[in-house]
Write a structure and sequence with these properties.
The complex is a heterodimer of chains A (314) and B (249). Chain A is 26% helix and 30% strand. Chain A contains 9 helices and 18 strands. In chain A, helix 8 links the parallel strand 16 and strand 17 (274-279). Chain A is elongated and about 60 Å long. The N and C termini of chain A lie far apart (54 Å). The mean pLDDT of chain A is 96. Chain B has a single domain, classed as Rossmann fold (3-Layer(aba) Sandwich). In chain B, the strands form 2 sheets. Chain B has a 9-stranded mixed sheet, sandwiched between helices. Chain B has a two-stranded antiparallel sheet with strand order 2-3. The chains are: A alpha/beta (314), B alpha/beta (249). The interface between A and B is large, with 93 and 80 residues.
């Protein structure tokens, strides 16, 4: 069996979720290939070739691969598909944008967001914001999957020595053009990869008050997340959102501050190892899933928490 | 400009779902059903575009059982012009839905298809991308802003890490995200008016599409439950527990 992973290039390397996808692919196939499509993919290909478990890296370079437009990358996936039994990508906004288009062009199903592998053709995926798990069996000869990164261990980013092979780019799709991008810059760990996440909700009341989470996040070297309510209220940009339609996280420690715990938020963090909730409403649903809870005024508790952490540090 | 908008009938977002004891699916009898919230945003965006003079006709489409017509009436009451119901009791998976919309987009010769980015029942997030692929049209997924120009559209997309702006030639397929707009509630006079609007029923055979499911659902189960933990009084106590008991800091 052969598997191909479509890898997003990021900061001259590959996106961290590719490592988790390699683990899923290795459970299905004895030969795992990675394809990197980029304007300049050499560094990313080099990074991919060092991942333990990767056997071959294909690099397609073309100016029109610079911004990963789905139209261009789906065409490349379709071109390569005949050689593979499985084609995978992380279930992030990159994979979700590209693989379904490729699946339709191949006339096969896409199995989205798999969180477990039951057998070579049977997969488990969350539905209803994670309130149910569907086990589905595919009858397609080429199986296309997006992988929930938090459900699979990350493969080691070094130790591998895969062969790197240049392949031809496909022609550019004429109807779509990249204009610009605006990335939120942060010195903090990436939300989906952080060991500790501090997340704020509507209880933070305003953009200025939400910024009070910075101190706590600094103490813990944590990423900062937010509930949909906090994003909708404009406290933080959309890419902070944890939940069914935002990011899925599963850190060692998730601290939910001023978050009530709507179903769609829980869907994004329920697999965290330890959950802490701080909320003034003792009936808040977040307490039903929290390992540790404090009922009280978060604006009073936050500085106390920082002080207690400083003390621990000493 | 002619716009096709998809609406799906799903369990209302406020309902706490129950998995059936025989593990065949989720309980839907005697459960409140509503329009998928992302689809409401798609309908609203189409109506705003028409109100601003940018569209001539809005056609709403739903695929599925007879009761989908209620969802279509809601969309008509919001302000869509006419509805098409592709009637079937069969299970519909994203590829089948995309084939239905592709057939209708061609039949109606539309310039734009607006779909919700995902349905809150099966959380697939696929139909728009698949549809764009089948039609070989440009795709703009997870839209938080749309601006229309002569024969083209500028879209701001919500992506991991921030946002991205693309320019797409029309016709195109767009999937909408939460922050595109806030959908309106239909008013009573508009609900009455909607009853007189055209609602055409078609079968999958009328569209010559293959809707056979590609994935077999083996079972649907409830996820493992997390137990509620303990309530603490002070921040100091919390830090102590996290350090000495949970050992995560």
């Amino acid at each position: 069996m052969r598997a191909l992973i479509l890898a997003e290039t990021r900061n001259g390397g590959i996106a961290p979720a590719v490592l988790n996808t390699v683990t899923a692919a290795a459970a299905l196939a004895d030969e795992v290939h990675v394809v990197v499509a980029s304007a300049d993919g050499k560094a990313a290909a080099q990074a991919a070739s060092q991942v333990t478990g990767v056997h071959k890296v294909l690099v397609a370079e073309a100016p029109h691969y610079a911004h990963a437009l789905a139209e261009n990358l789906a065409a490349l996936v379709v071109e390569l598909a005949t050689d593979y039994d499985y084609i995978l990508a992380p279930a992030d906004t990159y994979g979700k944008n590209i693989l379904p288009r490729a699946a339709a062009l191949l006339d096969v199903a896409l199995i989205a967001d798999i969180c477990d592998i039951a057998s070579a053709d049977t997969f488990v995926r969350p539905i209803y914001a994670g309130n149910a798990l569907a086990t589905v069996q595919s009858s397609d000869t080429t199986k296309l999957l997006t992988v929930r990164a938090t459900a699979f261990e990350a493969a080691a980013g070094e130790g591998g020595s895969a062969e790197i092979l240049s392949i031809e780019a496909m022609p550019e799709f004429p109807g779509s053009r990249f204009v610009s991008e605006e990335f939120t810059r942060s010195e903090r760990p990436e939300l989906t990869a952080a060991r500790i996440v501090v997340s704020g909700g509507r209880g933070l009341r305003s953009k200025e008050e939400f910024a009070q989470l910075d101190g706590l996040a600094d103490c813990l070297n944590a990423a900062i997340g937010a509930s949909r309510a906090a994003v909708d209220a404009g406290f933080v940009p959309n890419d902070y959102q944890v939940g069914q339609t935002g990011k899925i996280v599963a850190p060692d420690l998730y601290i939910a501050i001023g978050i009530s715990g709507a179903i769609q938020h829980l869907a994004g963090m329920i697999d965290s190892k330890v959950i802490v909730a701080i909320n003034k409403d003792e009936e808040a649903p977040i307490f039903e899933v929290a390992d540790y809870g404090i009922v009280g005024d978060l604006f009073k508790i936050l500085p106390e928490l920082e002080a207690a952490l400083d003390k621990l540090e000493q | 400009m002619k716009i096709l908008v998809g609406v799906k009938r799903v369990i209302d977002y406020e309902v706490k779902i129950r998995v059936k004891t025989d593990e065949t699916g989720v309980e839907t009898s005697n459960v409140k059903m509503s329009m998928n919230p992302f689809d409401e945003i798609a309908v609203e965006e189409a109506i705003r575009l028409k109100e601003a003079g940018g569209a001539d006709e809005i056609i709403v489409v739903s695929m599925g059982e007879a009761k989908c017509q209620e969802t279509l009436r809601t969309a008509l009451a919001m302000g869509a012009d006419r509805a098409i119901h592709v009637t079937t009791d069969a299970e519909l998976q994203p590829l089948a839905v995309a084939k239905g919309f592709a057939a209708l987009a061609k039949r109606e010769d539309v310039n734009l298809v607006l779909l919700g980015k995902q349905a809150i029942d099966d959380d697939n997030n696929q139909s728009a991308q698949m549809l764009a692929g089948l039609l070989h049209w440009p795709q703009g997924t997870f839209a938080s802003k749309l601006e229309f120009g002569e024969g083209k559209l500028t879209i701001i997309r919500e992506v991991d890490g921030g946002s991205e702006t693309l320019e797409l030639d029309l016709p195109a397929v767009v999937s909408v995200d939460l922050r595109l707009n806030e959908p309106r509630y239909p008013t009573l006079p508009n609900i009455m008016r909607a009853k007189k609007k055209s609602l055409e029923a078609l079968s999958p055979e009328d569209l010559s599409i293959d809707i056979a499911p590609r994935l077999k659902v083996i079972k649907v189960t409830a996820p493992p439950k997390r137990k509620a933990g303990i309530k603490l009084e002070t921040a100091a106590e919390l830090v102590d527990r996290l350090h000495n008991e949970a050992k995560v800091i």
